[in-house]
Amino acid sequence: SQQGEEDPQALSIQEGENATMNCSYKTSINNLQWYRQNSGRGLVHLILIRSNEREKHSGRLRVTLDTSKKSSSLLITASRAADTASYFCATDAKGNNRLAFGKGNQVVVIP
Amino acid sequence: ETGVTQSPTHLIKTRGQQVTLRCSSQSGHNTVSWYQQALGQGPQFIFQYYREEENGRGNFPPRFSGLQFPNYSSELNVNALELDDSALYLCASSSRTSGRALDEQYFGPGTRLTVT
Questions:
Q1: pLDDT at B101
Q2: Please, which residues bridge with residue A75 across strands?
């Protein structure tokens, strides 16, 4: 089974609104990463949060991590049409040498 | 642009054929990971190469094999292609020291493989 499971799967919002996505995982992790993918192209790294961190910010992005609940959230504030993409969480589980990706959230920002 | 390149961009093969996909890692990176992404799904880990040796493998059959060269570029080979092998194949490079956790991965644009 996949480590990351995002919820909700699809999100449609108006430009300027905030978008929130959640991700859950099953095992102990070293870190959790969020990636963006536009139209089936390569993934772009957005933010990495380590297991000993609880919250991290990068520009309009805010990521939280709750290791007790094995969950993370990604918040995009003041969304723009250019934020339209698929967003994936990926976990680096302890003892592995790999990233395990969730199924992704498709976000559509309507101008 | 991440500096990771992949070739070819698109490829159409027939069931039973063999294919080789190539990846040039970002300068200074010693680790390459390969992922398969089916339509509408997240990437699935195939394997990783660290300093020319396989350093972890996902749940893929032996007909998926790879190489990493001294310049850290890499190849993914798939033998006896099946229809379900149709997917976007992504490589990602990173720089790591053995035993350290994975930091951010730099992904190439992918190779779209269609098997008919």
A1: 59
A2: A20, A62
* Residues whose CB falls within 8 Å of the CB of residue B103, separated by 6 or more in sequence, listed in order: A31, A48, B94, B95, B96
Number of H helices, E strands in chain A: 0, 11
CA–CA dist A108, B103 (Å, integer) = 28
Is A37 within 8 Å of A54 (Cβ atoms)? Answer: no
When pLDDT is averaged across residues B27-37 and rounded to a whole number, the result is 91
Distance, CA of A31 to chain centre: 12
Determine the pLDDT at residue A5.
61
A96 neighbourhood in chain B, CB within 8 Å:
56
Contact across the interface for B90 and A31, Cβ inside 8 Å? no
Q: State the smallest CA–CA distance between residue A40 and chain B in angstroms.
A: 8
Q: Which residues of B31-41 are buried (b: 16+ CB within 10 A; e: fewer)?
A: bbbbbbbeeee
Residue type present at position B64: F
Structure tokens at B18: 């063999």
Amino acid letter, B33: S
Q: What is the pLDDT of residue A4?
A: 59
- Binding-site residues on chain B for chain A (CB distance < 8 A): 2, 4, 33, 35, 39-45, 48, 50, 55-56, 58, 88, 90, 92, 101-110, 112
